[in-house]
Specification:
Blueprint (H helix, E strand, L loop, with lengths): L2 H26 L5 H6 L6 H28 L4 H28 L6 H8 L6 H33 L3 H50 L4 H7 L5 H5 L4 E2 L2 E2 L2 H8 L9 H9 L3 H32 L16 H9 L4 H42 L5 H22 L7 H25 L5 H20 L1 E3 L2 E2 H5 L3 H19 L5 H11 L5
Antiparallel strand pairs: 1-2, 3-4
Helix pairs in contact: 1-7, 1-14, 3-6, 3-7, 3-11, 3-12, 3-14, 4-10, 4-11, 4-12, 4-20, 5-6, 6-7, 6-14, 6-15, 6-16, 6-17, 7-12, 7-14, 7-15, 8-12, 11-14, 12-13, 13-14, 14-15, 16-17, 16-19, 17-19
C-alpha cells in the first residue's frame, strides 16, 4: 500500500471517528436523567431501533469472526449464521412486543435486572444483584472481544502496534458512550449499521467479479482448502469429513442466545410505540438476512480472491482479517479508490464500536442503577446515578482493555463464551417470565444461576483428562446452559409457592394489552 493510499484511508477513519464523538457531544446536552441515559426516554423510531439492535448485536464478529472461520474451514460454518437468523426472527416476532409492554407495566423497568425484580416482586433485591453480576462478568469478555477486533483492524490496515491500536479504539468508544448515553449509542449504531450493510454487500460482489464466475472452484482448489472445492462449498462438510449432528446442533444453538442479550433486549424496551416496533421487526429481519449471507460469501470469495496469499500461514495476516485484506486489495490502486476503501474499512470499525458501546452502556446501567441505587444506596439521586454510570463506563473499558491485551486472542472464541453465558443465564428466564405465568421468584433465581454457572464449568474448568467438557464433547455450552436453566426454572417454580394474585393479574394484563 502506497503512502498516498494510507493517507486517504487515514482521512476516512479520522472523519468517521470525529463524527461519532460529535454525536456523543450533541446528545450529552439532552441527557438529564437515568431514563434518558439508559433508554432515551423510550423514544426510538422504527429504523433507529432496528439498525441499532442488529448493529449492536453483530459486532466485529460479523465482519471478522464469521468470514474468518468460513475462510479457514468452509461453507459448513454457515450453520452459525442460520442459527443466528432463526434466533433474530424469533426474538423480534415473539419477544420484542411483549417485553416492551411488560417492562412498562412492571413499574417502568429501565434495565433487564430491574425488570426481573419488578416482575417477581423481589423486595430483597436478590434478582437485581445476581443478574447484574452476570452482566458485568460476561460483558467484560464481550467488550474485550470488540476492543480486540479494533486492535487487529488498526494493526492490519496501518501497521500500528496492536496495543496502541487497542488504546485508540477504546478511547473513541469510551468518549461518545460516556457523553451521550443511550441516544448517542443508538444514533451512532444506526449510522454504523447502514455502513456495515453497504460494505457487506458491495465488497463480495466486486471481489467475485474480479475472480470471475467460472474460476471460483479452481482458485479454491489452488488455495489448498481441505477436501477440495466441492467439500469446501458444501454446507454438510467440515473440511474433508461430514459434519456431525453435535456440530450442527452446536452451531444452530447460537440462535438461542438472542433471548438473553441485554444490549439487544433494551432496544425493544426503548421503542416509541407498537407501530414503530412492527416497522423495526421487518427492517431488522431483512438487515440480518442480507448481512449474514454476505459475511459468509466474503469468507468464500476472499479465499479465492486473495490468492496466492493464504491467510493464517507463512507470516500472513490471520484468517479473521479476510474482509480487511480483500478491501485493501480492491481499493488501493489510487487515492480516490483508497478513500472509498477507507469508508468500507470504517464499516468494520462500525461493527466493533456499535457492540462495544452498547455493552458498556448495559454494564453501566447494571452497576449504577441496579447495584448502587438498587442495593447499596437506594436514596441516591438521579445526578449521582448518572455520575456512577459514567465512572462505570471508564472502569469497564479499562478492564476489557486488559482482557484484550493479548494480540493472539480469538475474536470468535471471546464472543462464543460471552454469548453462551448471557444466553444461558437470561434467555430462559426472559422467555418463561413472558410466556409462563407459573414462573416465580425461586425459579428465576435458579434459572439465572444455573445457566451462567453451567457455561463457566463447561467452558473454563478442565474436568476430562485436562480438557474442558466443551472441548471433550464438542457440544456448545449454550445448549447445556440453556437446557439446564429451563429445567431449573420449571422444577423450582413448581416446587415452591405459586405467584401472588397481583403478579398473575399483571401477567394477564400484559398478555391482553392492546396498543395502536
Amino acid at each position: 500500500m502506497s503512502s498516498g493510499d494510507m493517507i486517504a484511508i487515514l482521512i476516512a477513519f479520522v472523519a468517521y471517528l470525529l463524527l461519532m464523538i460529535i454525536i456523543g457531544a450533541i446528545y450529552m446536552k439532552n441527557t438529564n436523567n437515568s431514563e434518558d441515559y439508559f433508554l432515551g426516554g423510550r423514544g426510538l423510531s422504527g429504523w433507529v431501533a432496528a439498525l441499532s439492535a442488529q448493529a449492536s448485536d453483530m459486532s466485529g464478529w460479523l465482519l471478522m469472526g464469521l468470514p474468518g472461520t468460513v475462510y479457514a474451514m468452509g461453507t459448513g460454518q454457515a450453520w452459525i449464521a442460520i442459527g443466528l437468523f432463526l434466533g433474530t426472527v424469533f426474538n423480534w416476532i415473539c419477544i420484542s412486543s411483549r417485553l416492551r409492554r411488560y417492562t412498562i407495566k412492571a413499574n417502568n423497568s429501565l434495565t433487564l435486572p430491574a425488570y426481573f425484580e419488578n416482575r417477581f416482586r423481589d423486595k430483597k433485591r436478590v434478582l437485581l444483584l445476581v443478574s447484574s453480576i452476570v452482566i458485568v462478568i460476561f460483558f467484560l469478555v464481550y467488550t474485550a472481544s470488540a476492543l480486540s477486533a479494533g486492535g487487529k483492524l488498526f494493526n492490519s490496515v496501518f501497521g500500528v502496534d496492536y496495543h496502541i491500536a487497542l488504546a485508540i479504539g477504546a478511547v473513541v468508544i469510551l468518549a461518545y458512550t460516556f457523553m451521550g448515553g443511550f441516544m448517542a449509542v443508538c444514533v451512532t449504531d444506526f449510522i454504523q449499521g447502514t455502513l456495515m450493510l453497504i460494505g457487506l454487500l458491495v465488497v463480495p460482489i466486486l471481489a467475485y467479479a474480479m475472480v470471475g464466475p467460472g474460476n471460483l472452484s479452481s482458485m479454491l482448489d489452488q488455495s489448498q482448502v481441505a477436501g477440495g472445492a466441492a467439500s469446501y462449498l458444501s454446507l454438510f462438510k467440515n473440511g474433508e469429513r461430514p459434519y456431525t449432528a453435535i456440530e450442527i446442533i452446536s452451531q444452530l444453538a447460537w440462535g438461542l442466545g438472542y433471548c438473553g442479550m441485554p444490549h439487544i433486549l433494551t432496544r425493544f424496551m426503548a421503542v416509541k410505540n407498537q407501530k414503530e416496533l412492527r416497522k423495526s421487526r421487518v427492517i431488522a429481519i431483512i438487515w440480518v438476512a442480507l448481512s449474514l449471507c454476505a459475511a459468509v460469501v466474503i469468507g468464500i470469495v476472499g479465499r479465492a480472491y486473495l490468492m496466492p496469499t493464504i491467510l493464517g500461514t507463512d507470516g500472513a495476516a490471520s484468517t479473521e482479517s479476510v474482509f480487511i485484506e480483500t478491501i485493501t486489495k480492491l481499493f488501493t490502486k489510487d487515492m480516490n479508490l483508497a478513500f472509498i476503501g477507507g469508508i468500507f474499512l470504517c464499516g468494520i470499525l462500525a461493527a466493533i464500536m456499535s457492540t462495544a458501546d452498547s455493552q458498556l452502556l448495559v454494564t453501566a446501567s447494571s452497576v449504577s442503577k441496579d447495584i448502587f441505587k438498587g442495593v447499596v444506596r437506594p436514596d441516591m439521586d438521579e445526578k449521582k446515578v448518572l455520575k456512577v454510570s459514567r465512572i462505570t463506563v471508564i472502569v469497564v473499558s479499562v478492564l476489557a482493555f486488559a482482557i484484550a491485551w493479548d494480540p493472539n486472542s480469538s475474536i470468535m472464541g471471546l464472543v462464543s463464551n460471552a454469548w453462551a453465558g448471557l444466553g444461558s443465564a437470561f434467555g430462559p428466564i426472559v422467555l418463561m417470565s413472558l410466556f409462563w405465568k407459573r414462573t416465580n421468584f425461586a425459579g428465576a433465581v435458579a434459572g439465572i444461576v444455573s445457566g451462567g454457572a453451567a457455561v463457566i464449568v463447561w467452558d473454563y474448568i478442565p474436568l476430562v483428562n485436562g480438557q474442558t467438557l466443551g472441548v471433550a464433547t464438542g457440544l456448545y455450552s449454550l445448549v447445556v446452559g440453556f437446557g439446564l436453566s429451563v429445567a431449573c426454572i420449571v422444577i423450582f417454580s413448581l416446587c415452591t409457592k405459586a405467584p401472588s394474585k397481583e403478579i398473575l393479574d399483571e401477567f394477564e394484563a400484559v398478555k391482553n394489552w392492546k396498543e395502536d
